[in-house]
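Table S5 (text form). Sequence records supplied for joint modeling of the two-component complex.
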Amino acid sequence: SQTIHQWPATLVQPVGSPLSLECTVEGTSNPNLYWYRQAAGRGLQLLFYSVGIGQISSEVPQNLSASRPQDRQFILSSKKLLLSDSGFYLCACLEQGSYNEQFFGPGTRLTVL
Amino acid sequence: LAKTTQPISMDSYEGQEVNITCSHNNIATNDYITWYQQFPSQGPRFIIQGYKTKVTNEVASLFIPADRKSSTLSLPRVSLSDTAVYYCLVGRDTGRRALTFGSGTRLQVQP
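The corresponding structure-token record, covering 224 residues in total, follows.
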């Protein structure tokens, strides 16, 4: 079964600073990969998804970007963080041929001050 | 993706059976119904998935009526550790679209 690693687990960054969150996946090949953000007490908001290396689709226009340099690596970035970027960031993967059963990583708690 | 409606919160006591109903009136023919569970500061975890009638696994049961416009997640004999948010999703991820998580149902189990 898949294992998803995310780091860092927690992060505190000042407004205007850059961001790089990394997600790596083990146990599967050519998965669909996703970045979600969850504000406190809220549901999950899909930010980006990728169906292959270099293929990124953005769901919400914002100051964040994503990249997939390798099959099982997904990176979330920002050049300048905003206060509103604070939240719980989750990486998820979906095996090819699987319907709806996404596996989620442990998440990164980002606080922008 | 079909829109879903589920209660914002529910309360229960240990040992009781809990049923969480989700409405999805616009479900499409090819859509599956999937439930996830999320504990605080963790990612959601897949619980159960079904297409029609009844599905049961070691964690829960999923009841889907013939018209498939709703579904009910049944948790037998809940414990304190079942306190979590439960999400109902309807769709079929082809890779070109991802799942849309609503606000879910916050289940609080009391001793």
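Note: Residues 12 and 22 of chain B are 18 Å apart (CA to CA).
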